[in-house]
Amino acid sequence: MIVPMKKAQIIVLKEDKEKVLKNLQKSAVMMLISSEEKEITADISFENETLKKVEESVKILNNYTEKKGLVREEFIVNYETFTSENPRRLELLELTKEANQRISDLKAENESLKAEVSFYLPWKNLTIKLDEIDSPKLAKINLGFVPASKVDGALELISEYGGDFEVLYSQGSETAVIFSCYIDDEASLLKDLTNLGFSKVSLPKLPLTTSEIIDEKEAKIKENLSEIEKLNQDLKDYSNEIKEILLLADKLESEKVLKTAPVNETHSAVYLVGWVRSDQLDLLKKAVAKATPDYDLAIMDPEEGEVVPTALKNNKFVSAFEPITEMFSIPSINDVDPNPIMGFWYWLIFGMMMGDAGYGVVLAILMALLIKLTKPKGTTYKMFKMFYYGAFATIFWGIMFSSYFGYQLHKPILLNPQIDIMKYLVVSIIVGALHIISGFLVKAYGDFKDGRFVDAIFDNFAWVFFLMGIGLYFIPNEMVSKVGLALAITGVVLIVFTHGRKNKNIFAKLGGGLYSLYNSVNIFSDILSYSRILALSLSSAIIGMVMNTLAELFTQNPSVFGIIIAAVIYIIGHAFNLAMGLLSAYVHDSRLQYIEFFSKFYEGGGVQFKPLSMNLKHIDKIEKVEI
After folding, report:
1. 38 vs 599, which has greater pLDDT?
2. Alpha carbons 522 and 467: distance in angstroms, whole number
3. Domain range for residue 168?
4. For the chain, how many structural domains are there in total?
5. Residue 251, CA atoms < 13 Å, CB-side half-sphere
6. Strands 199-201 and 139-147
7. Which partner for 196 in 150, 242, 312, 612 could form a disulfide, CB atoms 3.0-4.6 Å apart?
8. 3-state secondary structure of 9
9. What is the pLDDT of residues 467-488, one digit of tens each?
């Protein structure tokens, strides 16, 4: 049901502002709104900057957090811990950032050091210090690489020039060499060697041998790796405190909500305006009075034309189906809450579309496990509960159809979708007609509630009489058929002679009625849309049967291999069929509610009631919240 709303105006002293807002946030009963007066805006740059740091830190520490399996541990804290100023939380952000940055720097340094080691490695066999490699007055000493296939040619060429040649290192396709030649021959020799693929290398003049340089850099790499290991352990230790960071995130988000709440101030007073549920007025008064004895609280009815938010209050079963309506549109305050009647029809049609008791049992167990292990919140929790409830409708219809993972274990109580196709089509059409009739009845109820008695009878009951009359007419019972014919005629008369009543001209009135009767074609088209119930149920049953047949082919001549293949086909095939059936039922059932059902009565366009509250994205529950 849609809870009636009241408008509240609160005036408190300026020094009591923070206490009042905190109590309103703890109680979560009042949705603050903007007023015509100038609002005071707060600086939330610190919160935003810190939240960015939190996001970065959590991303880093998640790589070090030990995986705890499928079961998600609930994050519960008490209010005192939540609101406390713990400097360790901000310290963790800085420590995490610094450690991660240091690791990145050390890794980059090691990559550079490895590149340098690779550069010096070919010259490792040089036994003299690099600053001692010098050319004598009449000769030149050069280092470089020669392609492995050209080494003999290079040696011969250098010998022809009267030079000396030594291979220092050879790996793969290149060979590191050192050679000397007469100073006058250097240019000519280098040119000829270049034609053979020689590339000259210049080493820095350092007072170390290449081996000493390599050892020094490898020692530094080892030292860096040791520091990285220590930093990784530090980050792992910090990850054990990740809940403190997540708590900080929720605390900052909640503080942002308080700071950005629409508040109006004068030099000495604070003025708050907002909406409160009519069943929570006492909680509102308690929250304000607990914060300060000096306050003025006025409760008013909404004025005509005001945008009033919508709050719903339904039982556990109905609330599970609320996300279906919310994805279409939030109910307005003037709507009849569609969820109770829609929830029932969604549940019933979902079960028909799935239509297999075995799948229903698996779905119920799967959803129960997901709820138990993952502990979802909000819309996700409601969706899981919706599928959980839908599993029992699936079991019911599976028993009616005698369908158990595609097998028929007993004589169908109602029908066999694979054989009684026309009978199932009739059942689908009847369900569709009743679904649409219930939509007109909901509209009639809304009209009666708002005092539009004429509209309720002429615009809605006329269609109810017409559709019910046609349905009863085809029942093979003379008395029932006569009643059906009378109802249908009554409906036609009401439609033709009343649906154009708002027109002034008599002919326009009659024309409007006839046009409305002509639009019954659209209603019959809507009813035919429910044939998708048959289509989805039949396709699921056939796929299940095919999977069973394929699996049985491998068990006709029993063998270990055949049994394994049969089990794989059976498990994967039915898992696929269940997944596709679940997706199809969810989509097509929603489509029937949105297009065929809601179009008969539901307007939507409402605004969701969002009271001032703590913005908890990570914490599941805050205990000991006293107002």
Report:
1. 599
2. 13
3. 134-202
4. 2
5. 21
6. antiparallel
7. 150
8. strand
9. 999 999 998 888 999 999 999 9
